Amino acid sequence: SCGFAAGSSPTVAAGETCVIDGDVTLGNLTVNGTVFVADQDLTITADNIMVMGTFVVGTRAAPITQQVEIVLTGTDRAADVMGMGTKSISSMAGGTVSMVGSYGQQGWGLLGATAPAGSTTVTTAPGFKVSPGDTVALAPSSYDPNQVDTIEVTAVDGQTLTLAEPTQFEHQCGPAETFGDQTFAPCAEIANMSRNIVVRPADGTFGDGFGTHMMFMGTTDIDGVQTQNCGQSDTLRRYCFHTHNLQDNYQASIRNSVCDQAFNRCMAIHRTDNAVFEGNVSDNNIGHTIKLEDGSERDNVISNNLTMRTQRGTLSEEERSEGDPRTASMWVTNVENEITGNHLAGGATMGMWIDLREQGPIAVQPDGQPTISANDDVDRWNSTPQAISGNVTHSYSRVQGFNGCCGTGIGIERSFEASEDHRAVILSDNVTYRNAVGIWGQGYASVIGTIAADNAIGRHINQGYFQDTLMVGRSAGNTDEMVTFADSVIGNFNYDGATISSGDTCANYGEAATGYPGGCEGMFAAHLPNITFETGIESTEGVTLINAQPVFLGEGNSVGEGAPGDTNRNNRYTHPTIVTDSPDGSLTGHDGPSYVTYAIENGGSRPGCVLMPEWRALSCEGSARPTTFGPFSDNAAQGTYAPPIQPSDFRLGEGDIPQPRTAPV
Fold this sequence. Notes:
The chain has 665 residues and is mostly beta strands. The strands form 8 sheets. A 16-stranded mixed sheet has the order 1-4-7-10-21-24-27-30-35-38-41-44-47-50-53-56, with no helix packed on it. The chain has a 15-stranded parallel sheet with strand order 3-6-9-20-23-26-29-32-37-40-43-46-49-52-55. Strand 17 and strand 18 form a beta hairpin. The protein is elongated.
């Protein structure tokens, strides 16, 4: 037994080993030697735990099977134990922390059937682990990210759970619909929020957002740990789980754990390489839920995690610029990490944000201090991408007037100064549904095999290549009021850049299908009064239309109130002269090369073109496409003409698409 005196602030010296085998109340605990926590019901209460030796609350060989609570009691925000704050479990100088509970598997699954509002029982898919007395959280399935039910389970009969109280919201599962060779099968997630190792703040000490935090600077193995009211609001480096400056010097993994009601980020991966973050759950987190912090992080596995109800963050780095929020459930600053099988279920602004605006690591912290990184040679624009595949994002709603980021399932932002190599960023086989925008992006990237369903805009894109996308205007299971853009539902909305697509399937677009005007190809937006060939290209081939209107181009000024010549990015226009090429005629219905362009209000025409009133567009034969345009106010395309881009020239083969590793590191 350690024999700590009640109220003391003990130090376990290097070379010493002891066991905590009963309830204990301490000030600061410093571990330079080794401390084991016994496998029995007990509570450790302390202001702070600092580890420079070894702190063990279960191992993989001998996980904790009883209930262990660690209650952190610090109340002084100004306290700073060895530069790592207080109210924490922290390691430094290579200290080892092992906290392994009995849960032992991915902490969430899918429902087996729809649970209507008012349900007192729910059915889960096979494999979900839960026991009577556990608390489950049912994720939203609608456009509203806050439709989460958190309820105790009173009985378990196979895959049927009996709940202590009725659900407040409906949580849908299915129906599955197949379009061609792609199947859209939406299903709400269910998470077990209970674990037998719990880290929480003392009652009454977190009302101002001053929760617990964990920062690890040595070997770390976390599995089956539940944090409640973790993170410290408005404070950098004070997050629920934070691997800090490990690089590849120490092994680290955080698995099957829980962030419940986090005040400041769930998992921060900072200057850490070759680590595993797998099977975790977060609900109602403020700020980026899972984040690769400065872009120097490489070769990590981030897989099969579930986030719910990500709330807009309060730290300045979570805004792209002042007033332009980018809080993401997953903030990805380097694509040299494997990111697979994650479900991001709702939030205030964005699901997954791939942020490659800068070439090297993010150079300056929000407090103005420069970073110090051993990986300053990282080239984030020209890295070798790893698998970003099999992820699902849904239920992201707008928090303000339309702004590309807000209410977005997947956002891709790569600087225009980067190369035009669309293979530098590759996403494959992801699903994004019931958002304002399915995929938003600017900068060259390749997006392969995506399913985007029930979004106001399926793709809102400035530059990029898209292959084999399924876009569904309204699915059979979507009984909610549609989220719309300018009172329409659109598949592809291009703005300002070269967007190239091959093999799109569009299903259920048009007023008869969604209840709103719309089409597979939608509005074209321009931020500036003059655009050129280099910045205004769109070409699509191999389009399959299933109960879908091909094209719908909205009012010329329907999405902005500014006057021609106004360069304010928020005053977006439908440019009357942008063209979509259809080299094979699959979009327009022509037998060969053709294109679509804006139809002016007075029904103006152009040689070789037919006015399509429902499309609000001209459908034109031939391969002519303007390479320069006149002033915004002109209604006729001017300048020279050139043959269209051939999307088939960009098509990626199976060998070009990164695949997940056969096993986690």
